[in-house]
Task: inverse folding
């Protein structure tokens, strides 16, 4: 229940980031790097009823991933890039279904939640 309250009280951009991470998690693609989260979000901009924020910029995604990790909604795991550099990868602390359930009632995200559930 605590996580549900945290997810619902997050701002719209943070919720969108959480949905993208939930989608990547349901596809077994976590821990996810900021690039993949950004690309996933951009691919689903049309699935959002109204965009309560501007576009999706990678720097903003990086900052939001870090903030959500600090708040305990995401786990940050160091992973290695193909070139051997350490990069942070993120995954949900809780279950993807919990995030989807928490945001299924948010009108602007309902189509995206349904897209994730049906895949």
Result:
């Amino acid at each position: 229940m605590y996580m549900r309250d945290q997810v619902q009280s997050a701002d719209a951009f943070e919720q969108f980031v959480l949905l993208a991470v939930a989608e990547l998690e349901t596809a077994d693609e976590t821990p996810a790097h900021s690039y993949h989260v950004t690309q996933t979000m951009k691919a689903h901009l049309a699935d959002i009823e109204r965009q309560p924020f501007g576009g999706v910029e990678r720097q903003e995604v990086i900052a939001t991933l870090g903030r959500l990790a600090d708040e305990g909604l995401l786990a940050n795991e160091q992973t290695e890039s193909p070139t051997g550099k350490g990069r942070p990868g993120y995954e949900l602390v809780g279950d993807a279904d919990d995030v989807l359930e928490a945001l299924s009632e948010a009108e602007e995200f309902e189509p995206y939640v349904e897209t994730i559930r049906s895949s």
Q: What stands out?
A: The chain has six helices and two strands.
